[in-house]
Amino acid sequence: MNAAVRAVTRMGIYVGAKVFLIYEGYEGLVEGGENIKQANWLSVSNIIQLGGTIIGSARCKAFTTREGRLRAARNLVQHGITNLCVIGGDGSLTGANIFRTEWGGLLEELVRDGQISEDVAKEYCHLNIVGLVGSIDNDFCGTDMTIGTDSALHRIMEVIDAITTTAQSHQRTFVLEVMGRHCGYLALVSGLASGADWLFIPESPPEDGWEDLMCERLGETRSRGSRLNIIIIAEGAIDRNGKPISSNYVKDLVVRRLGFDTRVTVLGHVQRGGTPSAFDRVLSSKMGMEAVMALLEATPDTPACVVSLSGNQSVRLPLMECVQVTKDVQKAMDEKRFEEAIQLRGRSFENNWNIYKLLAHQKPAQEKSPFSLAILNVGAPAAGMNAAVRSAVRIGICQGHTMYVVNDGFEGLSKGQIREVGWHDVAGWLGRGGSMLGTKRTLPKTCMEKIVENVRKFNIQALLVIGGFEAYEGVLQLVEARGQYEELCIIMCVIPATISNNVPGTDFSLGSDTAVNAAMESCDRIKQSASGTKRRVFIVETMGGYCGYLSTVTGIAVGADAAYVYEDPFTIHDLKANVEHLTDKMKTDIQRGLVLRNEKCHEHYTTEFLYNLYSSEGKGIFDCRINVLGHLQQGGAPTPFDRNYSTKLGVKAVLWMSEKLQEVYRKGRVFANSADSACVIGLRKKVVAFSPVTELKKVTDFEHRLPQEQWWLNLRLMLKMLANYQISLTEYISGKMEHVTRRTLSIEKGF
Description:
Blueprint: H1 2-14, E1 20-22, H2 25-31, E2 36-38, H3 66-79, E3 83-88, H4 90-112, H5 118-123, E4 128-133, H6 149-170, E5 173-178, H7 185-194, E6 198-200, H8 210-223, E7 229-234, H9 247-258, E8 262-266, H10 278-297, E9 305-310, E10 313-318, H11 319-334, H12 338-344, H13 347-360, E11 372-378, H14 385-398, E12 402-406, H15 409-415, E13 418-420, H16 448-457, E14 462-467, H17 469-480, E15 491-496, H18 512-532, E16 536-542, H19 549-558, E17 562-564, H20 572-586, E18 592-598, H21 607-617, E19 623-628, H22 640-664, E20 665-666, E21 669-670, E22 678-684, E23 687-692, H23 693-696, E24 700-701, E25 706-707, H24 715-722, E26 736-737, H25 742-745
Parallel strand pairs: 3-4, 4-9, 5-7, 5-8, 6-7, 10-26, 11-12, 11-14, 14-15, 15-22, 16-18, 16-19, 17-18
Antiparallel strand pairs: 1-2, 9-10, 12-13, 20-21, 22-23, 24-25
Helix pairs in contact: 1-10, 2-3, 3-4, 4-11, 6-7, 7-13, 7-22, 10-19, 11-12, 14-22, 15-16, 18-19, 19-24
Region (C-terminal regulatory PFK domain 2): 372-751
Binding site for ATP: 59-60, 89-92
GO molecular function: 6-phosphofructokinase activity; AMP binding; ATP binding; fructose-6-phosphate binding; identical protein binding; metal ion binding; monosaccharide binding
């Protein structure tokens, strides 16, 4: 919420509006007085890394009455406020809409009571409202992600990772209760991201007789050698008859029937607290900026809207349409139409649920398929690689394929380091960082003959390559060698996994979210140290090769003063302007600066050079320090986003490969040489798409290992605006108004 407050305040000031902060939610709006204060640029400084909200929030009885809303209207008119940005859940937003529809009547009443004059009522005759959805449950229909959901998942996954280690040591069963009275999103995604054994969500109660089935499954996993069981339950879990299922009931059941040592952990309000994740900070900043634009462009005829993310684009949705569908879900659940409830939650929710059910327990394949698939990791390690291998192996086994894994990338493929794996060989891989298979940067052209020999020897008909730019380049080399070697006429797919996010054909690579969070946590600490020592500027170098994604997104997440990247060329004049900007900043109350530099952003303006320049130009005003973040950006356990995204891409890639294998299977052999038989899978705008590597070759800059066009460059506008640089808003792309209906909810979103 703080990142949103900061973005709305700064964008508002930026476009020349007066911005007021209203403290303590609607209560402050009704009480007025000291609760409504005008804000300046520095009012929201150094808050982006704080959890909760600095302007307070309160449930307010008075605002639910007309009398309370009348006082609120008077307070707004007194300050000349006619645009309201509300950050909250569906209750707060519905309240805002009622306030807006009553506005005209409230002003008339104030005129009648002689509290305001007719002229004043005329001047402020219309109230514009825009909503930002802040709810950790992600229960607001029509929006992909609400503010706070990703951070709540971070808290849950930290707890699950910690509990897994103790459960394994003691051979225990844990029942974890997460928040979600009416919505099972948190339970569902954390179940998917931790590979939980059993999951209870309100939208899909278990079939009657679930007790027997659950105990049978738990016993089965133990007898296969697993040392622990994790059961995740949403606090609103119910059975088919609408009767609540409590975590203690589940615990007693396991103890009574199986005799396992079982513990309950109720996560409670831990999930609401803590520092916000990078995804949430960037999401809120984007939404805050868009909210101000929506208010500026609003007319008396535009409906009240909420600003949301769809894929990675900002969109505006009519508030009441979203509220209506959100109510429909609840109604469907109350009336026990559970299938429909899941569909109304949106396609992503339904997808998560289906994938969870596919991967949680091994179901015997209908029949053995004639195909063999091999999986390998290529390039530098990235968080999420193991999760993708796990889901790909398991989905392949469900389809009846023979699944091989290859150690050490293409080099291992040439040396024959290939082995068949089963369902349980990849248990526990989900939360592991790095690459369990081992990864190398070697490209196939150095050992092509040997690779071909092993493809023939193991009869590999499909290759799934999970890795960075080398994975894409390697598959391209294999495709180009098809003319020489018939053995390479097989199905190939690349899942982009690299912290640099520089693979063409996708907007996000596996591991980049984890890397941004790692860089952000380091920068948060650096900022803290700088606020202790006054007047200090830190120059922080990030990884990423030539790709500036990591520095740009980290820069937005930590409120950096500048982020130098290769894609946005800069000259000595820009550097001079930046130094002057920091000199001015030191004259205010905020006496610290943070400048990010991508490792290859400029051949001559190195980190050392920047340090020397800033030190000599800032002499007597501020001093400088260098920090090179280095390999900590490659490590760490994958974030919930990366676990979920990896799992989905692994599943989708193998399903696509199975379909392609069927198409090219003739007389007992696979022969594939069309362009679309070797693709990169990725999230593009709002959909998961497959792009042929030969097509992507045309839009790739191989010298700098970059796609020629990158979507995130438009985030740089926001970075500069929030750091108080004068920029032109003509390049800003406003979100479109989209409608929320049952049809739009059924569209595949990719997240």
